[in-house]
UniProtKB/TrEMBL annotation:
<dbReference type="InterPro" id="IPR014358">
    <property type="entry name" value="Enoyl-ACP_Rdtase_NADH"/>
</dbReference>
<keyword id="KW-0276">Fatty acid metabolism</keyword>
<protein>
    <recommendedName>
        <fullName>Enoyl-[acyl-carrier-protein] reductase (NADH)</fullName>
    </recommendedName>
</protein>
<comment type="pathway">
    <text>Lipid metabolism.</text>
</comment>
<comment type="similarity">
    <text>Belongs to the short-chain dehydrogenases/reductases (SDR) family. FabI subfamily.</text>
</comment>
<dbReference type="InterPro" id="IPR036291">
    <property type="entry name" value="NAD(P)-bd_dom_sf"/>
</dbReference>
<keyword id="KW-0444">Lipid biosynthesis</keyword>
<dbReference type="Pfam" id="PF13561">
    <property type="entry name" value="adh_short_C2"/>
</dbReference>
<keyword id="KW-0443">Lipid metabolism</keyword>
<keyword id="KW-0560">Oxidoreductase</keyword>
<keyword id="KW-0275">Fatty acid biosynthesis</keyword>
<dbReference type="InterPro" id="IPR002347">
    <property type="entry name" value="SDR_fam"/>
</dbReference>
Length: 392
């Protein structure tokens, strides 16, 4: 089980002054830590990310200071002392998170929040990134970002090689089988990983899909090839169906699944191309249908989180993410940066008994940007009395 001396999740508000000109703020060891090393987009095919392309033009915002108000997962009870208030308690639960390749994205943040609530953590990592991830984990490179609110370190019970594009060994083409990046790894298709988890642990309670990839994301949708479009759908949305199909038989009744989506599924986001917007729309539609089927057949809930832009390594490698973060700061109802831990804590809530009647839902965690019909930073609104966060 994950090492938590005092499991059970409470909410604690913290303040920190940040600047809107910063895209990633350094966090203390009692919070989440995010690096800024860049890796190629293809290296993180199974990483959680917001895939965006370079802007047609760029703009620079004047630095604006905001007061950071973030809820943090706090362990506040032991086996002897109950948690006061309304706790998120996942003790005795086991979670499998598909799509963690570093300590920087939403998948890692979700794992930390689940661990802070007492869940045991299993991880599925894209095969070509497996060695780097396991080596970094073993050598302590992630230790600072593994620190939980109670001071203990998040423990990962086991890391499995995974490529969710392939359902079974028969689906793997010869060029992938012989690819040197897959050498030394075995049993990494979805069905094989589910079977390995069953043999190792028996059952799970929580399944998290943190996978996305669009090989032609830099292209306009109208210029995307059939192959590129179908690849985006396969890696970013059908992979969730496949995971659910193979893991449902080993999920305990009352379990929960969570995926990650993006507002481009329902609004136009120029630059989010290559069929990625279509893949996210499919993922949200599938969430509703799968909620019905998994709920009726297995008593398992299915929800998705529509997360705002995050400056993760995978997203920053695309080159467009900084503009989206600045756009959100200027136009969202809450003028503050979005932190991965806020998505992580929402996932912990959705996975907990507190959300026992929530299924088939798209939950927005984006500072309210999804509610906006216009961008209020447009010159067209000059002179209009628009409320601003003037805290400094």
């Amino acid at each position: 089980m994950a090492a938590n001396t005092t499991p059970g999740l409470k909410i604690q508000a913290t303040k920190q002054c940040i600047s809107a000109s910063q895209n990633i703020s350094k966090m203390s060891t009692m919070s989440f830590s995010f690096g800024s090393k860049r890796k190629s987009f293809s290296d993180f095919r199974s990483s959680s990310h917001i895939s965006l392309t370079k802007p047609i033009h760029s703009f620079k915002l004047a630095p604006i200071k905001f007061e950071r108000m973030v809820t943090k997962a706090m362990s506040g009870a032991s086996e002897q002392v109950p948690v006061s208030g309304l706790p998120i308690d996942l003790r005795g639960k086991r979670a499998f998170i598909a799509g963690i390749a570093d300590d920087n994205g939403y998948g890692w943040a979700i794992a930390k929040s689940l661990a802070a609530a007492g869940a045991e953590i299993l991880v599925g990592t894209w095969v070509p990134a497996l060695n780097i991830f396991e080596t970094s984990l073993r050598r302590g490179k992630f230790d600072q970002s593994r620190v939980l609110p109670d001071g203990s370190l998040m423990e990962i019970a086991k890391v499995y090689p995974l490529d969710a594009v392939f359902d079974s060994p028969e689906d793997v083409p010869e060029d992938v089988k012989t690819n040197k990046r897959y050498a030394g790894s075995s049993k990494w298709t979805v069905s094989e990983v589910a079977e390995s988890v069953k043999q190792d642990f028996g059952t799970i309670d929580i399944l998290v899909h943190s996978l996305a990839n669009g090989p032609e994301v830099s292209k306009l949708l109208s210029e995307t090839s059939r192959k590129g479009y179908l690849a985006a759908i396969s890696a970013s949305s059908y992979s969730f169906i496949s995971l659910l199909k193979h893991f449902l038989p080993i999920m305990n009744p009352g379990g929960a699944t969570i995926s990650l989506t993006y507002i481009a599924s329902e609004r136009i986001i120029p630059g989010y191309g290559g069929g990625m917007s279509s893949a996210k729309a499919a993922l949200e539609s599938d969430t509703k249908v799968l909620a019905f089927e998994a709920g009726r057949k297995h008593k398992v809930r299915v929800n998705t989180i529509s997360a705002g832009p995050l400056g993760s390594r995978a997203a920053k490698a695309i080159g467009f993410i900084d503009m989206m973060i600045n756009y959100s700061l200027e136009n969202a109802p809450l003028q503050k940066e979005l932190y991965a831990e806020e998505v992580g804590n929402t996932a912990a809530f959705l996975a907990s008994p507190l959300a026992s009647a929530i299924t088939g839902a798209t939950v927005y965690v984006d500072n309210g940007l999804n509610a906006m019909g216009v961008g209020v930073d447009s010159p067209a609104f000059t002179g209009l009395d628009i409320p601003k966060d003037n805290k400094s």
